[in-house]
Design brief:
The complex is a heterodimer. Chain A has no helices and nine strands. By secondary structure, chain A is mainly β. In chain B, the strands form two sheets. In chain B, strands 2, 4, 5, 6, 9, 10 and 11 form a seven-stranded mixed β-sheet that branches. In chain B, strands 1-3-8-7 form a four-stranded antiparallel β-sheet, with no helix packed on it. Chain B is globular and about 40 Å long. Classes of the chains: A mainly beta, B mainly beta. At the A-B interface, strand 4 and strand 8 of A face strand 5, strand 9 and strand 10 of B.
Chain lengths: ~110, ~120
C-alpha cells in the first residue's frame, strides 16, 4: 500500500476551522484517499473519502491537490467532540478487497 | 440500526493462558475484519472474512491466533497461548460488501492485558 505522512499532533481552538494535512507523494491512479477518526476509547469511524475531486459531507470537507500528492481534511468548526486521532489512508480501488492500512494518524486536541 | 457488538470489553489474563473475543457485525454485513491496535499505533488488520470464508489472513500469527466465522454472521478470535506482546485492543469491523466502496463500521473493541 502507498504510504501517507501526517503530523503527529495538532491543536485547534473550539469553534475555529481545522485543516489536517496529509502527504501521499507515491499515490497511484487507482488509490482512493480515505479519512477515519478515532475518538478516545472507541473504534475508528469513517469521515470522508475521495479520488480526484474535492468532497463535502455533513462531517467534513476533503480538499485534494491537483497532482493528488497531498490532501487536507477540513473541519469547518471544531467542537470538543472532534478531539480524536485522524487517520489518512490510501486504498487501492483496483484491488477490490476494501482493506484499510492505518498509520499512526494525527492527534487533534481542541482547546475550549 | 445496531452497531458492531464486541465482548468482553476488557480482559486481563496471565501469559500462556488462552482468551477468546466475540464479535457480532451489523446485520446483513457480509465482510468482517479483526484488527489489533497496540497502544500509540493505528489498527493493524489481522484477518478478513467474506461471509464464512477467509479472504486474507496473511498478518495473523497462526501459531497462536485463530479466528472463525462459522455461519457467516458472528465471529470469534482466539489467542492460545497469550504472550505479553499481545496486550492490545482488538477491534472488529464490518461492511456490507456491495459493489463499490462501503465504509467499515467498527465496534468498541476489547482491551486485552497480558500479565
Amino acid at each position: 500500500d502507498a504510504k501517507t505522512t501526517q503530523p503527529n499532533s495538532m491543536e485547534s481552538n473550539e469553534e475555529e476551522p481545522v485543516h489536517l494535512p496529509c502527504n501521499h507523494s507515491t499515490i497511484s491512479g487507482t488509490d482512493y484517499i480515505h479519512w477515519y477518526r478515532q475518538l478516545p476509547s472507541q473504534g475508528p469511524e469513517y469521515v470522508i473519502h475521495g479520488l480526484t475531486s474535492n468532497v463535502n459531507n455533513r462531517m467534513a470537507s476533503l480538499a485534494i491537490a491537483e497532482d493528488r500528492k497531498s490532501s487536507t481534511l477540513i473541519l469547518h468548526r471544531a467542537t470538543l467532540r472532534d478531539a480524536a486521532v485522524y487517520y489518512c489512508i490510501l486504498r487501492d480501488g483496483g484491488a477490490g478487497s476494501y482493506q484499510l492500512t492505518f498509520g499512526k494518524g494525527t492527534k487533534l486536541s481542541v482547546i475550549p | 440500526e445496531a452497531g458492531v457488538a464486541q465482548s468482553p470489553r476488557y480482559k486481563i489474563i496471565e501469559k500462556r493462558q488462552s482468551v477468546a473475543f466475540w464479535c457480532n457485525p451489523i446485520s446483513g454485513h457480509a465482510t468482517l475484519y479483526w484488527y489489533q491496535q497496540i497502544l500509540g499505533q493505528g489498527p493493524k488488520l489481522l484477518i478478513q472474512f467474506q461471509n464464512n470464508g477467509v479472504v486474507d489472513d496473511s498478518q495473523l500469527p497462526k501459531d497462536r491466533f485463530s479466528a472463525e466465522r462459522l455461519k457467516g454472521v458472528d465471529s470469534t478470535l482466539k489467542i492460545q497461548p497469550a504472550k505479553l506482546e499481545d496486550s492490545a485492543v482488538y477491534l472488529c469491523a464490518s461492511t456490507d460488501g456491495r459493489a463499490g466502496y462501503n465504509e467499515q463500521f467498527f465496534g468498541p473493541g476489547t482491551r486485552l492485558t497480558v500479565l
